[in-house]
Amino acid sequence: MAASGGAQQRANVPSKVAAKQAQAAPDYQPGLDQHALDVIKSACDRLAAAKSMAFTAIVSYESPSRIGPPLVYSTRSEVLMQRPDKLRVIALGDGPRSEFYYDGKTITAFSPAERLVAVTDAPPTIDDALKKAYDVGAIYFPFTDVLVADPYKDIADGLKIAFYIGRSTVVDDTTTDMVAYVTGDVFVQAWIGTEDKLPRRIYAVYLNDPARLRHVLALTHWVLDPQLPANAFVASDTSGAAPIAFERPDAANAPGLKPPPKARAASAQ
Known about the structure:
Layout: H1 2-24, H2 34-49, E1 52-64, E2 70-82, E3 86-93, E4 98-102, E5 106-111, E6 116-121, H3 126-137, H4 144-147, H5 151-158, E7 159-171, E8 174-183, E9 186-193, E10 199-206, E11 214-224, E12 242-244
Parallel strand pairs: 6-12
Antiparallel strand pairs: 1-2, 1-11, 2-3, 3-4, 4-5, 5-6, 7-8, 8-9, 9-10, 10-11
């Protein structure tokens, strides 16, 4: 009981700070703060300029439990990308391992535990390959916004609110600028490296979700413009795997290839 009481006192601290901030700025009007826009765009420009990249993405997302309060599930993905037409995502986490390969000609989804593999012809760019993977196979990566050719465009098209929060030194052992924005129907808080301009943490809430479930994307172990071997994007060890159709798991008669969980969190796009 004493421990829970102490936790309650600590939990009240952020709410008291927020209340004081609200009292200090009663005339705040939502809009587009130029400082916040500059931080967001600098991150997008840094990502767009990279010819290749490697990073680790840890996605944590809430899902309602049977008794009401949400449970939290997590997925860890090791990502390699080379523009304009190569991508590899090895996903681990609270579920079976899955592997995704795109080499400019084909998209391959492989489930090692179940020994199932699905292959389909691919369009010539990463953007279009990601769209086809979602439209045809229901495969979605919450860090898609980091990979596209023009990360800023999708944010700008639906941008309604943006404001600068301040600096933090607690995320990924680096100094970050914190910004918040609303694009489309998503509220996003982002921690972006002050020096390297790389997104480090993305917090998202869908405004049309009555439960306001939270999605958190942590991006670590960044390497920009690494030299990547050509075979890095070719599926390996699929011998003996049963071929299945590349289609949505909920399609009629679809076998059980399970793509990474759909837990979208907007990033600095």
